[in-house]
Design brief:
GO terms for molecular function: chitin binding. This protein is of the alpha+beta class. Helices cover 12% and strands 27% of the residues. A hairpin with a 6-residue loop joins β1 and β2.
């Protein structure tokens, strides 16, 4: 075992020693691994590596030269460090990633140090993995995208196929729908097709007429929704 460790250590030392600084000072890319680089000081190279998910761009005129892969031409530098992903939404700790369900092309995730933030492409656009932006479906070129029209919540709610329009006749991008039995809850459909459950703040009920949470006095059928709670507080 000691012999194996020694061989590996020697191989690493040799590989490290093989890098020759092109200039006395500066940061320079590794010839093989795109997220590895070397920082040279007085001709002495120190090996560095970008945060997981980012790669080194020698053309950047900033001290921090690590950037998103879709912004960098790695050329033949195809190797990368082992992924350090924290969830199915963040396969690497940093970057922009598609929804893990290949049929959902309008939702993607921005990951920063392993923390994901869900984001949505509007107006029928798809997330383009090549550019990290939203694009028309034919440009994004995603395969297997579904309409999400068959997606269903655990209580059975599905987004209606018919689009909703406002009083001016404009299509509502993320329409809301009332809950059939709970005045404080409602549903909303991301891009009209992805169902989500909504909850009004305490003391408010959903008002279908204005498509938002409102005071119970403005929603006749829900005016007594919190009556039992008020009675409990007075006794």
């Amino acid at each position: 075992m000691k012999a194996i460790v020694l061989v590996v250590a020697c191989a690493f030392a040799v590989a490290h020693a093989q890098f020759k600084c092109p200039k006395s000072r500066g940061q320079f890319e590794d010839p093989i691994q795109c997220d590895k680089y070397y920082e040279c000081d007085e001709g002495v190279a120190t090996e560095k590596i970008c945060p997981d998910g980012l790669v080194f761009d020698p053309t950047i005129k900033l001290v921090n030269k690590c950037d998103q892969p879709f912004n960098v031409d790695c050329g033949d530098r195809l190797e990368l460090q082992e992924p350090q992903g924290t969830s199915e939404f963040c396969p690497r700790k940093n970057g922009f990633f598609s929804h893990p369900d290949p049929a959902i092309c309008n939702i993607f995730y921005s990951c920063i140090n392993g923390e994901e933030l869900e984001m949505n492409c509007m107006g029928g656009l798809h997330f383009d993995e090549k550019t990290g932006n939203c694009a028309w479906a034919d440009i994004a070129g995603r395969v297997g995208c579904g309409s999400n029209s068959n997606k269903k919540l655990s209580d059975g709610f599905m987004c209606p196929k018919e689009t909703r329009t406002d009083k001016n006749g404009q299509i509502i991008t993320h329409p809301n729908y009332p809950h059939p039995s709970d005045c404080s809850r409602f549903y909303y459909c991301l891009n009209g097709i992805e169902p989500r459950a909504g909850q009004c703040d305490s003391g408010l009920v959903y008002n279908e007429d204005v498509q938002r949470c409102d005071t119970p006095d403005n929603v006749p059928e829900c005016k007594d929704w919190y009556k039992d709670d008020d009675e409990k507080r007075t006794h």
